[in-house]
Amino acid sequence: MRFELRAITHDGRMETLDLQALDEASAREHAQGQGYTVVAVRRRANLFAFLRRSGERFPLVLFSQELLVLLEAGLPLVEAIDTLAAKERRGDFRALLSRVVVVLREGRTLSSALEQFPTAFPALYVATVRAAERTSDLPHALARYVSYQTQIEALRKRVVNASIYPVLLIGMGGLVSLFLLFYVVPRFGRIYEERSTELPFVSQVLLSWGQLVEGHGTATLLVLGLLLAAGIYAFRATRLRAAIADALWKLPGLGERMKIYQLARFYRTIGMLLKGGVPLVTTLKMGAELLHPVLRARLASAGQSISEGRSVSESLDANDLTTPVALRMLAVGEQSGNMGEMMDRIASFHDEEISRWVEWFTRLFEPILMAVIGLLIGGIVILMYMPIFELAGSLQ
Known about the structure:
Blueprint: E1 2-8, E2 14-20, H1 24-33, E3 37-43, H2 49-52, H3 60-72, H4 77-87, H5 91-105, H6 110-114, H7 123-135, H8 138-194, H9 201-215, H10 217-236, H11 238-249, H12 252-275, H13 280-287, H14 293-307, H15 312-318, H16 324-336, H17 339-395
Antiparallel strand pairs: 1-2, 1-3
């Protein structure tokens, strides 16, 4: 992102700076590092900012992988991050890493440097690095984080790949339906209107739509476009998305699967942090961000029970944050004293369960979706040709 800054130089002159940075705080710190006193910061308008927003996220996994390689090759931490900054092509990311290097050269720890840029380095990542600093085991911590993100991404890709074909079916079915409604139906309506053919009621409704499109085509397209834009804008609203998520959670089968999916991510995150040396109560608070608000409230209650001395398995089970399999495995983990590894195994078990369910649901949903789209398109065609069928029957 580009920012316009009003700043005062060391000799008292007011200047306008044009900087590229990850966020407003990074732009301000970059200018201050050059000796300016920042008065105001304004983000520059960009017509393509919405389209590029997803691409502006800091590549944290790639950064961790490259940093791990350099550290294992024997480079010191400061030199390794400085090398990554030098090879970075994007100006905002290069400025971000340069600021991290400046903080490190001031004698501060890596975790304290990273937590100054929360948009690039989330609290989970900072906690992982901070725990590794206590044991001087940063390479292994980075490897654990990369493995964690790889497993999370693998499950997400399975869900996304399973949804591609249904989305294509819906898109193609919608395009064919629009072609029939906006191009074919108006022409059939004109033919029937010229011949004063008596039509069934449903066909009359359909062909009235065709007459509306033919007489006010531009206005109809404009209204539909506005409705589509309003729907997209409303869907982007946080409240509406939260309401949709709450409604999905209440569905008997889907809600349970969504719960298991979130619990699997939660267990994997807790396991990674525990293996990194982070205390259990702290990991529970950090893992709460991954859960639905309903589960988040239950987790707060479970954390309070654990703080009071109850076992982890009992506290999570009492607040409905386990499954029968997870409950037994947690009990085994408590007895063996290896909760981190056991949390990771629970997550792997439920990841496989989710993958099997997604595959089963896709195989069931795709033929049903094809049948619905076929019935919709076939119904439109039959309603258009119904008067011709009746005429052919009367001639016999």
